């Protein structure tokens, strides 16, 4: 028999104790992407179809390289958080844990590969 009131049971961050954190993480990355994606399109668009030397010269400048790096990182973190939320909602048990680990590994591997390629272009 529980002596807790309904209000006392409802306080906190939810049943998993992390729902609010995931929500605000998604809001922050969504806001970041709202700013970064147009910047990325306008810095990356003019260089499409250019020669390899022109692309290297373009990404050797700090602004396009920083915008591309931020877009890579923020978009993959947003993907990871959104996919993790969907996995948590629709799976359970060991499958949930394995899928979350797999998605996290894929997201961080993609971030590392994207940043490595960008550094190779910029330097």
Largest sheet: none
For this structure, the CATH topology is 3 helical TM bundles of succinate and fumarate reductases
Distance linking N and C termini: 66 Å
Please state the structural category. mainly alpha
Q: How many DSSP E strands?
A: 0
Secondary-structure arrangement, i.e. CATH architecture: Up-down Bundle
Mean pLDDT: 90
Count up the domains: 1
Estimate the global geometry from the Cα principal axes. Answer: elongated
Q: Encode the helix/strand succession as letters.
A: HHHHH
Calculate Rg over CA atoms: 20 Å
Describe the structure in your own words.
The relative contact order is 0.11. With 123 residues, the protein is mainly alpha-helical. The chain has helices at residues 6-10, 19-44, 52-59, 62-90, 93-122. The mean pLDDT is 90. It starts with 5 loop residues before the first helix and ends with a helix. It comes from Palleronia sediminis. Keywords: Heme, Iron, Membrane, Metal-binding, Transmembrane, Transmembrane helix. This is Succinate dehydrogenase. GO terms for molecular function: metal ion binding.
Summarize this entry quickly:
The chain is mainly α and 123 residues long. 80% of the residues lie in helices and 0% in strands.
Architecture blueprint of SSEs:
Blueprint: H1 6-10, H2 19-44, H3 52-59, H4 62-90, H5 93-122
Provide tags for this entry.
80% helix, metal-binding, SuccDH_FuR_B_TM-su, mainly alpha, SQR/QFR_C/D, 123 residues, 5 helices, elongated, Succinate dehydrogenase, 3 helical TM bundles of succinate and fumarate reductases
